[in-house]
Amino acid sequence: MLEAIILAAGKGTRMKSNLPKVMHPIAGKPMLQHVLDSTAELSPEKIHLVLGHGAEFIREHIGHASLAITLQEQQLGTGHAVMQVLPKLAPDSTALILYGDVPLIRADTLKRLAGLADTKTVALLTVRLPDPSGYGRIVRDAQGEVAAIVEQKDASPEQLAINEVNTGFMAISADFLRQCLPQLNNRNAQGEYYLTDVIALARSSGLTVKSVETAFTYEVQGINNRRQQAQLERQYQMLLANRLMDEGLTLLDPTRFDCRGQLTAGSDCVVDVNCVFEGTVRLGNNVHIEANCMIRDATIGDGVHIHANTVIEEAEIGADCHIGPFARIRPGSNFSRGARVGNFVETKKTLLGEGSKINHLSYVGDAEIGANVNIGAGTITCNYDGVNKHKTRIHDHVFVGSNSALVAPVEIGEGATIAAGSTITQNIQAQQLGVARERQRNIDGWQRPKK
Ligand code: UD1
Ligand code: CA
How far is ligand 2, taken at its centre, from the CA of residue 169, in Å? Predict the structure, then answer.
C-alpha cells in the first residue's frame, strides 16, 4: 500500500512574500497543486500533506479527494516533519516522500521510485548535476550501491568530485521509518532533524538503498526564491512549447510563449510572439494568432485569424472569423462562421451570426445578432439600466449606421436599417428605416465670433 507524504510546512522566507511559498504558481498553478496532481496519478491510498506556515490559507485553496492534513507546529526539519505523519501511516505501507516546493516532479519518476521500495529496500531519487556544489553527494560502494549521502561540508576532495546528488525524494517502508526516525538528531549546521540521515541509518540497519536516477534536472529543482521560480517557469514553458511544436504547432519564438493551462491545436496553426494562453484553449486547423494576444478558456475554429493585441475570454469563435487587432472578446461571446470583429470592439454575451461584422469602435453586450449584419463604427448597445441587463435582438441583414445607440430591450427586424447617429429606443420592423436624430438645419450667412 502506498501513502504519499508531501512536506510543505516551511515559510519560504526567501520568497519575501505574504503568500505561503508552495502557493506561488508555476504556469498559473500553485506549486503544491502541481505536486498533488502528479502524486494523484499514482493513486496512493492517502496523500498526507504536512502544513505549518499558512496552513489555513493552503487548506482553503488546495484540494484533493484523498488528502489528509497534518500540522507541524514548529518546523524543526524535514525528518521532524515526516515524524508528525508517522502515527497516521498504516503499518504495512510504503511512504513516498515529496516536497511542496519541488513542483515539477513527474509521475513516471515517482512510479519508478515507489516500485523499488519494500521492507528491506529504501529507494532514493538522484540526479547528476554539472555543478553539484551545495548538494549532498551520493557515495556508492564497490557493488555500486548507495553507501551514504555526504553533505558538502563533510565531504573529502574525492567525494566533492562526485556529481551524482541527493534530490530528497525517497520511498521507504513505514515500518523502517518507525524504527529510524526516533534516532535522528539535530546536531548539524542548521540544527534541524534531517530526513536525509535515514539513508545512513538504513545502511547500518542492513537495508539496501537503491537509487533511481533522473535525467530531467527540472523535475527535482526546488524553489527557494523568486529567481528560481522564474527560471523554472521558463523551463516549464519551454517544455510545453517543445511538446506543442512536436505536435505540429508553429511558434514563431518559443521563448516568448506562455501557456497557463491546456492548449491544443489542430494542424498548421501559427502563434506569433508574446501570446498568453490560460485555462482550456482549443485551436482548430490553420488558426493564425498574431503577436500579444491573451486567450483564456476559448474555442477557436478552423481558419480563424486573430490579429495583434486581442483579448479573448470564455468565448467561441467559429471558423474563418477575423478578430482584432485590439479587440476585447468577453465571456459569452459566440461568433458564427466568417464573422468579423475589428479594432476597439468589446463584445460580451453576444451571439454574432454568420458573416456579420462589427469592424470598429463598438460595445456590443447581451445581444443576439443574426447573419450578414453590419454594425457600424461606434455602435453601442445600452444594455444596462443601472439595475438590470437587457437584451438587444438584431435579425439577419440589418444595417446599423455608425454612432448609433440601441437602448435595450429592443428588437430590430430583418433587413432593417438604422440611420447613423440614431438613438434607438423602439423596435424597428423588418425592412423599415429607423431614424432617431435631430434633422440637420443649415443657417445662411453665419458669422463666427471675432476676437
Ligand atoms: C531538502 C533536502 C534535500 C533536497 C531538497 C529538495 C533535507 C535535509 N534536505 O533540502 O536533500 O535536495 O529538500 O528541495 O531533507 N519542510 C517542512 N517542515 C520542516 C522543514 C521543511 O515541512 O520542518 C518542508 C518545506 O516546506 C519544503 C521542504 O520541506 O517544502 C524542503 O525543506 P527545505 O528547508 O527547503 O529543505 P532544503 O534545504 O531545500
Ligand atoms: Ca528547499
Answer: 12
Atom nearest to 22 CA in ligand 1: 30
Which parts of 86-173 fold into alpha helices (H)?
107-116, 157-160
Is the domain of 146 the same as that of 16?
yes
Nearest atom of ligand 1 to the alpha carbon of 167? 12
What pTM does this model have?
0.93
Contact between 424 and 400 (Cβ < 8 Å): no
Q: How many helices and strands (H and E) does the chain possess?
A: 8, 33
Q: Name the residues annotated as catalytic.
A: 360
Alpha carbon of 27 to ligand 2 centroid (Å): 19
Residue 76 lies in a domain: yes
Number of domains forming the structure of the chain: 2
- How close is the Cα of 399 to the center of ligand 1, in Å? 66
* 42-57 pLDDT, tens digit each: 999 999 999 999 999 9
| % of residues, the chain, pLDDT over 90 | 94
Q: What is the CATH number of the domain that holds 13?
A: 3.90.550.10
In DSSP notation, 308-371 reads SS-EEEEEEE-TT-EE-SS-EE-TTEEE-TT-EEEEEEEEEEEEE-TT-EEEEEEEEEEEEE-T
